[in-house]
Structures are given as C-alpha cells and as structure tokens.
Amino acid sequence: MRSLFFALPCLLLVGAACQRTTERGNSAPMVSSITPDAPLRETRWVLRQLAGQPVPAVEPNGQEPFLRITGAGTAEGQGSCNHFRGGLKPVTNDGELQFGPLLSTRMACPGLETEQKFTQALDSTRAYRVAGNTLLLYADAERTGTPLAQLEAVYLR
After folding, report:
1. Are 138 and 121 in contact (CB under 8 A)?
2. Contacts of 83 (CB under 8 A, 6+ apart)
3. What phi and psi, each to the nearest 5 degrees, are found at residue 6?
4. What SS3 state is found at 42?
5. What are 15-39's pLDDT values in tens digits?
6. Are residues 96 and 69 in the same domain?
7. CA distance linking residue 127 with residue 147, whole number of Å
8. pLDDT confidence of residue 65
9. What CATH number is attached to the domain comprising 116?
10. Structural domain of residue 6, as residue ranges?
C-alpha cells in the first residue's frame, strides 16, 4: 500500500510533465525566418550592385559607398572617396523616391568610376522597394526591370 501511495504521485508528475512539454511545444510562439523590412530613413544603406552588377571591392584608399536618408528628408552618403548631400523631391505615392540635386566633394580616387555610376543611379531614381535588409532603387514608378542600384542595410554597433 505504501509503495502505491508513493507511485501514484510519481505517475501524476510524469504525466503532467509530458503534458506540459506537449502544450509548450504547441503553444510556443513561432520564430519567423522572415527578416522585417529595414526602415528607409535613418539606415545606412551600403551599395552592393549597380544595374545588376556587383560593386567592385573597395580600393585601399577608398571607402564603401553608402546612402543614408535622414528623418528630416535629406540624402547623404559617400561614393568611394567623395561625400555627397542633397534633398529629396516631394512625392505623391508610396514607393516613389526622387533625389534633388546632390552636392559632392570632388576628390579623385581609384573608385571614381563606381562613384559616378552610383551618383547617376541616384539621379535617375524614381521609386524604391525595401525587402528585408535590401533597398532596391528603380528608374520608373512601377518598379519594373533591373534595379538601378541594390543596397544593403548595415547596422553600426
């Protein structure tokens, strides 16, 4: 009788533990493998492709080309060796983006060709799409065809 008195609570504990494990497994929140979209503004967008082609590695004296759109509605960044800054033109629809004239320093460097293509892509931009950590810039509001530029959100630590 005494062994039954101790065995019954043990069986109940084992059964409850199994039940909790099953419930926890069923009720645990799903971990999504989808990356949430990075915000367009106040993100450092590093240039990865121009017209579908990978951006060449940064030269020893150059810096990684990037774009940052501020909360105040200005654009700033770096080509390879030159800094640029300018405004955004007003848009009427979501997904549209157009840069105003960009002012830039004028230093010569080995990455100047990439820098010029990057500036031309920004000048031609009329729309964008953010997908996860990727920013795509397009020449038309319909966002069709090969993007002018592909940039990646890089978070500073």
Report:
1. no
2. 76, 77, 104, 105
3. -85, -30
4. coil
5. 444 443 333 344 444 444 577 899 9
6. yes
7. 10
8. 95
9. 2.40.128.270
10. 1-31
- CA separation for the pair 102, 77 (Å, rounded): 10
148 part of a folded domain: yes
| pLDDT greater at residue 133 or residue 63 | 133
Maximum Cα–Cα distance across the chain = 94
Residues 141 and 83 in one domain: yes
Which residues partner with 68 through β-bridges? 76
Structure tokens at 30: 């799903």
Picking from 67, 60, 12, 61, the residue whose alpha carbon sits closest to that of residue 41 is 67
The model's pTM: 0.75
Could you identify the residue written with the tokens 């504990």?
A: 13
Return d(Cα 65, Cα 77) in angstroms, integer: 7
Look at the chain and count its residues.
157
Q: What is the mean pLDDT of the chain?
A: 82
36 domain residue, yes or no: no
Higher pLDDT residue, 45 or 20?
Answer: 45
